[in-house]
Design a protein that fits this description.
With 243 residues, this protein is mainly alpha-helical. Helices cover 77% and strands 0% of the residues.
Length: 243
C-alpha cells in the first residue's frame, strides 16, 4: 500500500545512506515494541490494553527529563503519580496486595510496550531525517521485516497462515493497512509538525476507542472499577501534559 501511494505521489526513492542508520535504529525499536505488545495482548484484555497504552505520554515526559533535561513541573509530577496509581488500581483490580508482575504478565508487557512507544516517539522527534514521513515509514517497515522474519518464518507459522479463515485474513489486512501502515504515517507526520507533548496528548482518545470497540466487537465486560481506573489514568496524563 505504501509503495503504491509513494508511486502515485511521485515520491523520490533515492536512499540517503547516512540517514538509513537512524531509520535502522527506529525500526529496531518499533519491532521490539510490536513484539512486546502482541505478546502482551495474548494474556490481557483489549480494554486493559487501551487504558495502559494511555500512559505513554507520562513515559514521554519522564524520558524527556532524563535524556533531554526538559523540566518537570509540580503539576506534571502530581499527574505522573496519579496516572501510576490509576494503573496500579487497574492491574490489581482494586486489591493492591494482589499485584504480581508474573501473574499479570499481559498487563506488564503492554506497559512495557507503552514505554517502548514513548522511546520510539522521542527518538523519532529528536533525530534529523529529511525523508517525507511516507518514505520514512516505508523504509522503516522494510527494515522491520529484516528484524522480524528470523523470528516469524517457520513451518508452524506458515501452516497457521495457510489455514486462516476469511475473517482472519480480513482482520490481518485491516491491521496491516490501517492500524500499521496509515497509523504510522500519520504519527510520523504529526511528530514532524507538532511538539511531541501535543502529539502524545492525542493518545487520550485511544483508550476510550479501544474500550468501546472491545465492548462492541469482543463482548468484553467493562466493570465500573476498570472504567474508574482508566479515568484516573487519563486524568493523570492530562496533568502531565499541562505546563
Amino acid at each position: 500500500m505504501l509503495i503504491s501511494i509513494a508511486l502515485y505521489q511521485k515520491q523520490s526513492f533515492a536512499i540517503n545512506i547516512k540517514e538509513q542508520k537512524w531509520i535502522f535504529l527506529l525500526s529496531g525499536i518499533a519491532s521490539l515494541h510490536l513484539y512486546i505488545q502482541v505478546t502482551g495482548l495474548q494474556y490481557t484484555s483489549a480494554s486493559n490494553t487501551g487504558w495502559i497504552i494511555g500512559i505513554t505520554p507520562v513515559f514521554m515526559v519522564i524520558l524527556a527529563r532524563l535524556f533531554y533535561k526538559e523540566r518537570i513541573t509540580l503539576t506534571q509530577t502530581a499527574g505522573i503519580t496519579i496516572a501510576f496509581l490509576g494503573l496500579l488500581l487497574l492491574v490489581s483490580k482494586g486489591n493492591f496486595t494482589s499485584i504480581d508482575l508474573i501473574s499479570n504478565k499481559g498487563d506488564f508487557l503492554v506497559l512495557l510496550s507503552s514505554f517502548t512507544w514513548a522511546v520510539y516517539s522521542l527518538v523519532g522527534k529528536k533525530i534529523t531525517i529529511t525523508y517525507p514521513p511516507l518514505m520514512t515509514i516505508l523504509y522503516l517497515f522494510i527494515m522491520m521485516s529484516f528484524y522480524l522474519i528470523p523470528f516469524t518464518i517457520n513451518a508452524e507459522n506458515i501452516s497457521s497462515v495457510l489455514s486462516l479463515s476469511i475473517t482472519s485474513w480480513i482482520s490481518i489486512l485491516f491491521l496491516g493497512l490501517f492500524c500499521s501502515g496509515a497509523a504510522y504515517v500519520l504519527w510520523a507526520q504529526s511528530l514532524s509538525d507538532l511538539p511531541a507533548a501535543k502529539v502524545g496528548a492525542f493518545l487520550y482518545i485511544e483508550p476510550f476507542v479501544t474500550v468501546f470497540a472491545a465492548w462492541i466487537l469482543l463482548n468484553e465486560a467493562i466493570s465500573l472499577l476498570t472504567f474508574a481506573s482508566g479515568l484516573i489514568i487519563i486524568g493523570g496524563v492530562v496533568l502531565v501534559n499541562r505546563k
